Structure formats: structure tokens, C-alpha cells
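Hi, here's the filled form for the chain we discussed.

Project: internal
Contact: R.S.
Residues: 948
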Amino acid sequence: MQRGSGFMHVGSEVAATELLAIVDSTLRELHAGAPGLPTVTLASTFDGDLGFDSLARTELLLRTERAFGIRLPDDTLQRAETVGDLLVAAQHAERRPERGDTGAELRAKREQAPVAARPPEPAADTGAPTSAQTLIDVLEWHLQAHADRIHLTCLVDDGEHPLSYRQLAEAGAAVAAGLQQAGVQPRQCVAIMLPTSPEYFSTYLGILRAGAIPVPIYPPARASQLEEHVLRHAGILDNARATLLVTVPEAMVVARLLQARVAGLRHVVTPQQLAEQGGVPAPVDVRGDDIAFIQYTSGSTGNPKGVALTHANLLANIRAMAQAVQATPRDVFVSWLPLYHDMGLIGAWLGALYVGYALVVMSPLAFLARPERWLQAIDRYRGSLSAAPNFAYELCVKRIDDAALMGLDLSSWRLAFNGAEAVSPDTIQRFEQRFARCGLRPGAITPVYGLAEACLGLLFPPLGRAVQVDRIQRDVFAREHRALPAAADDAGALRFVACGAPLPGHPVRIVDDDGREVGERVEGRLEFRGPSATHGYFRNPEQTARLFHDGWLDSGDRAYRADDDVYITGRVKDIVIRGGRNLYPQEIEEAVGAVDGVRKGCVAVFGSPDPATGTERLVVLAETHAGDAAAQARWRGAVSRAVVAAIGEPPDEVVLVPAHSVLKTSSGKVRRSACRAAYEAGRIGVAVPTARWQVLRLAGGALATRLRLTAAGAGRALFGVHAGLLFWLLAAVAWPLTVCLPTPGLAWRANRRLTRLWLWLTRTPLSVRGLERLPSGPCVLASNHGSYIDGAILVAAMPRPVGFIAKGELRERPTLRLYLQHLGAEFVDRIDAERGVSDAARLAVAVSHGRSLLFFPEGTFSSRPGLLPFHLGAFLTAVRARVPLVPVVLRGNRDMLPDGTWWPRPASLEVEFCEPIAPLEGGADAFAAALSLRAATQQAIAQRLEPG
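And the returned structure, exactly as it came back:
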């Protein structure tokens, strides 16, 4: 194919002149009548100088392609920072066909293509992996049922890359082997910063197969946002304690900047580097309650919130959604949604993986560059399911010209999910009207509601139902929170879209500020529970505690019920309360965005506390182009009038700011809380530094971070030498003292004092909780095991002597045997089954005669966080002796002396004694009673250990 044909026939100066004219006309159209518009040059930046957002850039790229008869690369939207960048991209672009393929021509090509090149036929319904406990089990089920069936087709650079279940499994195994060779341990976090590509899917499954936890993050968007991207993601990776980052070569600069700021991030690799070693990964026990995905929500850089979702959570949500939409293997899901977001990862891909329907995926950049590609893919592959946020449907209405609709057939599209942001009834109406002529089914547009804390989906409407819009009285709703129906001629009525009913097995309730459930058509906070609900935020106990209310999870959204439907009214943290009225930012933002001179979609409305009045000030932050004082005054007046027209009262302050001052998430949502924080800190309107300056500043910060880490490492080394020498010095005192003292009780007390002295000399804090729960009589204690110092920690924590249970092999070491015997330890045989039985009977007798014994039921420990399987000895002993069992939780032990090292590290130690658990009585079978006691003990300890 010829390249650059749109520009090669004219000189570069002529091409530049024509492009400058296109940019200038687009600028003046976007800001019609605005004074003081800048002169467009090749050095003009689209964001800082011209104020072009993503949608404006999309329009400019379309106009450039039409004017010069070219097709720009999909990444031009992301890479072109200046007009000169766009000129270079255009000079290297491909010739555009005289006219694009219509839907009818696309279908004809498909039917005439060789069989091997045709899109796959819908799969036969061979059932579903209903007994699968993990996503790995799901893939194994497909390998057994139809290993060579095409699972997904990735559309990259206009080419098709089909991937069968077998190919996916083999590629994932290679990645898993590479991760293990890189030292990644089970339950450690691995970050994925990859674009949509076949490697994304194999990397994700490879992480799971290695027993690790995938943490998807989004690749850098534009150079002008580099600093914020690095700072935000450094906070995420630090919170996740990610040990490895998988990315593409093009993003290595950003990846290295992240690595310099994140202490534990040891490796930055590409998928190819992980897989090139080959090999078979070592088997890892992956369970349903293991974390399978951490979705980091759009929070601040200082306190990222990672929603921890287990395999069981994900499978429960996918099964419930599949039931609600009646998904079968005969469906085809077409998606451009980013895979770092739950809607694209769970809704599109993992749903396809479970149900078995075909998935067709393309890059989000491909959609943004030419929205018609989404609809053409639905036509070509006979897509029956697809999903997108509201803005995507609006983009299709506005950016797809009529020529692209000729012959387009959308009759196969039975469900078009609209979610992830507020649903506009006007957008739905316009989309249905525009594409009805293409065969779009009535009722195909399906508003849905979900949130990361519920995996993805929570509310779904009945299939095939037309969109329900509720019109309610504005003033009554704002002041009394009652959603009373409005009269047909009420021009000021509020409108909300029905999101349907909860998924099966996922009840919801709506409560007032005091936590009491409210009635029909009364607004309150939406709470939910069910098998899809997260157990909390990863390594963020404070935010996790705020999430739960009496076993219900707070969605953070407000809603009301009406006629079996739930209507979402807005985010709790975003609603402005002024003078006793609830004001809804989205409605005000839409009204202000329609004002001439204001950049649509670049308005943030929020409340700022006003100590003088005791209420909130209504602040409107709106992006406009630069203008003189008179123009600014006119725009402020127009914005105030628009707010009065929308809500009946004016704003307290209108702040007009340059382009890209309104902060947004990676998916384009306005970050109102972040805008409020920037406004209150005086950072609104501050000029964004150049990309080069951002890199220099980040490099300086990374150097400072490295220096701090080096200093911290030196401090840890000094601590290790200091603590290690003290330990062996005191051990030289402890051993002869223990052997010479006449009773184990005296030896225990001597060792307790020496251990506490060691902790004091090393400045190691030891927190002991729950001592009041220890029974006054004999008992069995069971503790988690993570380090060689666990015994010493428990000696320091226990107020009275107990007998340690030690493995029989230690009897072969005379020095240790003498020490442990005089400390009152009991040896048990772990190898000889017959001796093990007699040891268990002996321990039960000892407890019956008044001794308390302490077990490490895991029997050993590893560097892997969490618990190993529990042996039954401790629990049979408690059952046979008929004494309570006390679960004991150790924290910080693995941090202080990890497996594989003998040099201590600084750490805070905690010991918690849980409520005693009484074994079953009444003649119950001892083995069954021991199993029950083991399960209860393991649950008690696991719940108190920090996730991950």
C-alpha cells in the first residue's frame, strides 16, 4: 500500500499551511465568537495552547483524514502533542480508500473470504464450568471440552489475531514459568501495564497460574500528563507491594521511573521476555478465596484504594450476570473497552472465558480514532453483546457520518449495556433514533449499574424492556429526599434512568443517614451484600472499616426505589448540600457545558465548606479559552444564568480556567473531589510544565527516593548486625541458664526476660492483645508460623509457661534437644505414623493433667504470605483432653526474619490471643470434632492476618 500519498504530491510547506488552516478553523468553531484566540503554529500544543480535549482531537483527526485522503495511525490521538506532531504523522500515513467499506461490503468480503479467514461461527452450547472454583479451573474445563476452539479474536492494526483456549493456556504457562524464574512468589502482586493485545490475556492468566495477584494499571496517555501518571501509579504499586511490572518496550521510560520510586519493584519486563525462557511452571495451589484481581479505584495519589476480588467473587458475579442476560456460548461479545478497567476485563473477557462465547476485542484508541469501527465489528462478527459508557454512544451519534451507515447491519446486537458512568436518557434516545435504520433492536440499549466493590455488576433491568425514565419534582426531592412524580408539563423536573433490580443472590437496601432502611420513593444510601462483594481494600484497613455497615457494603451512591426498579441519583461524596437542599453536580455540569465558550465535558461542580454560613458553597469550575476581562465577565454571567435555569438558584462562585484544569480519571470521568482539593489548595489554573521538565522533575524525585532507599537499606543492614550479635550474645547466656535451672517454669521466665531485653535493646516494639482471653486452666494454643523467631516472640508475650510442640527431628541435635527439654517442650514424630499416634495420645494426657501446650499447626513455614494447611494434632489433642483451644495470631514475624535469611530486619511485632473455641461435646466423633475445630481456628487466624 502506498504511504504518504496525501502529502507527497505537494511540498511540505504547502501541506503545513493546509494543516494549519484545518486546525485554526476547528479551533474557531469550537470557540465561536471567543476573543483572543491564539495563533496556530506547528509548535502549538493541543492541550496547553489550543485547549483541545480528546473529543476535539478526534474531530480534528477526522477532518485531517478527509482533507488529505489518508488514514492516520490509531495512536495519533495519543502521541500527537503538537500540530507539528500531527503533520509528521500525516506525512507517514497510509492512503485512504476513495470511500470506506459500507456494512454490506464488509459482509460480502466476509462471505467471500477463505474459510480459515472468516470470523468464527457461534459456538455450540456445551454447558458451563459450573463446578469451577477458580479462573484456572475455568480454563482447564475449556481445555477438556474444546481446547482448539477460538476463544477470542484480537483486532490489532487492522489485522486479526485469533487465540484458542489451548494457545492461551500454553502462552499463560510460559509467562507463569518466567514469573517463577524471576522470583515471584504466590500471593505477591504483579502489575500489568499493557495495551490491548494477545499478550495481555496470557500475562493475566500466567500471573494467576503462578499463584500471584494481577494488578492492572493503565499505560501513560500523553506526555503532558506524565508526571501525574507516574505519581499516581507509584502510589498504587507501593500500596500493592508489586514486585514485578509487565509492560511494552515503548513504555519502558515510564516503567523505569516507576521502578525508581517503588522500593519493592524488582523487575520490569515485557511479556516476550517472561515467556522466552519457556519451561513448565511449578504447580501452585490456587484456591477460590485467593485474590484474583485488584481493581484500584480513582482515588488520590496519597491513599489509593485497591478493591481485592477473589476467584470466588469474580465467578459469583459472572454467573449472576450471565443468568440475568441469558448469555450462552452462541453469543458474540464485541469490545473496545480497556482491559485495565473492570467493565472490559470482567464484563467482556472473563465473562467470555466463563460462558464460552466468542470475544472480539480492539484497542480503545481504535474506537476513539474511528468510532464506526466498533459498530462495523458488531456487524462483521454478528455481535450480540457489547458494552460502553454513556459517552461512547454519544460519540457514535456525533462522529459517525451517514456514509458509514450505508448497509450497516446491527440486527444481531441484542444487548447494548450502558454503564460505568451516569446514563443520559437523551443520549439513549438519540442513539436509538440514529441507528434504528441499521436494524438496532428496540430495547437493545440496557442501562446497568455496578461498582468495583461488587466485582462489576449489581443492577440489571429486564431483558428487552424499553428504557424507563422517571421524572420527579425537583424541589421536594432536593429538600425532603422524596422522589414524587412530576406533572407532564413540569419543565424543571429531574430525570433519572431505571437500572433495574439486583442480580440474583445480591440483595440491596437503601438507608438514611442513621442506617435505617427507607421506603418506596425515598432517597438514601445504596448498600448491598452477596457473594460478589469484596472483603475490603488491599492493605487499607481504615477504608475497609468505612466500607461495611452491619454486614452491608456502602456503595457510595445515593438511590431510591420505585416499582421494583432502583434509580441511581449520584455519588454521596459529590452531592452538594446548600441551605438544606441536595444539589446534583452532573445536572449542573451538563447545563454549564452547553454554554457557548465553555468546553463541553470539562466542567466540575462541587461544594466547598463555608464556615461563615455553616453550609457549602456551590463552586462551578469551567474550562474556557483565554479571553480578555470583558469576555471572561460575559462567560461568568452566562454560566450563572445556566445554573439558575437548571436548579433555580445561582452558584456561589464561577471559576473559569484554561484547558485541562478540570481533573479526570483515565476513563474520562470528572474527578470532583480532586478538583475541590486543588481549588481549596489554590492549584487551579497553574500552568502544566512541559513533558521534558516533568521528566527531569520525576528523575530528580526518583534520585531522592533512591538515596532514601539506600540510606534505609544501610540502616537495615546495621540493624541486622546489631540485632544478630545481640541475639547470639544473649543466646550464649540463655542456653546454660536454661539447662541449669531446676524447673521448666523457671527456665521459661528466664528466657522471657532475656527475650524482652533483646527486644528492648533492638528497639523492636511488641504489642500483645487479648491476654484476658486466656483460660485460667489448661488449654491448647494454635499459632500461625512464619519465621524462626516465632517461639521467642511467644515466650516474650506469654504471661505463664506453656509447653511448645517441637518436631521430633530436633531430638537428633543435642544442643537444641537439651535446651528445648529444659524449657518444657514436647517432641512429636512427623514421619513415623505409629509413633505419631502414640505422641498424640501422650499430649492429650499431658493437657488433661493440667499442662497448656502451644502448637504451630502448619508444621513449617515459607516466604509465601498467608497460611499453610493445618495439621490435626493440636485439634485432636484439644478434643481428647476436652479443653478450649486458643487461636494465636502473630504479625510482623515474617517481616523481621523472612525465610531464607538469618539477619533480622526492623519490624513491629504483634501477638493477639483470640477468643477460646470449645470443642464439640456430647459424644461426637473425635475426628469430626477435630476437623470442625481446625476449620474454626484457621478462619479466626486468617481473618486477622493482613491481606496479601
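Let me know if anything looks off before we file it.
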